[in-house]
Design brief:
195 residues, mainly alpha, two-stranded parallel sheet, 2 strands, globular
């Protein structure tokens, strides 16, 4: 009986390719290292943004499972998503781009030095402000628009494209997030697809 109980509690066999697991873990570690460097840059007076991605490292999986043709509106803690998605475009140096952003460098390819944001045209990541939950209504609108372009026979993305939106638990308390959830529910009630 004890042996049977242990067998039920045994860890299931690993079903993920070890190489893939290492790449995902690498993206998570790189996100954390960018966080650590953001504090070092700030301490030296060379960086201006230290809200880190801690706790959201699991977003790396979403970066792997989605494509640059799936628009992604990212929470300010989604560095692991950004780093992992960039693996699909080897010409993009995600960590370097994030560091340019943290340093408010005019060489930052997405903000030109205005603010630290996750964004990349080739990665399908529209730049977002760090204002909590402000990107959720945009994600709903983009998802509705994505479907509307298909209905009008003017698709702007592949037929299987979806909109990805990440956010944190603090977002749930903001009226902007509640408005987005209500809009998404309304579109579902109206049978308007919002992928």
């Amino acid at each position: 009986e004890i042996a049977a109980g242990r067998a039920r509690l045994a860890t299931p066999p690993l079903t993920i390719d070890p190489g893939l697991a290492l790449e995902l873990f690498d993206s998570q570690l790189l996100a954390r290292l960018v966080d650590l460097e953001s504090h070092e840059l700030r301490a030296r007076g060379q960086g201006f943004y230290t809200i880190c991605s801690a706790g959201h490292e699991g977003n790396a999986v979403l970066g792997r499972l989605t494509s640059p043709t799936d628009p992604a509106l990212l929470h300010y803690r989604s560095a692991a998503f950004f780093v992992e998605r960039a693996r699909q475009r080897p010409e993009i140096h995600s960590v370097f781009d994030l560091l340019l952003s943290l340093a408010a460098s005019s060489d930052d390819p997405i903000s030109g030095g205005r603010h630290k944001v996750f964004g990349s045209v080739p990665l399908g990541i529209p730049p977002q402000t760090s204002t909590i939950a402000s990107h959720l209504p945009k994600a709903v609108g983009l998802a509705v628009a994505l479907e509307q372009t298909r209905r009008l026979d003017r698709p702007s993305a592949p037929a299987d494209a979806i909109v990805v939106c990440s956010f944190g638990d603090a977002s749930l308390n903001h009226s902007t997030a509640q408005g987005a959830f209500n809009a998404a529910a309304w579109t579902a009630f109206q049978h308007v697809p919002a992928p």
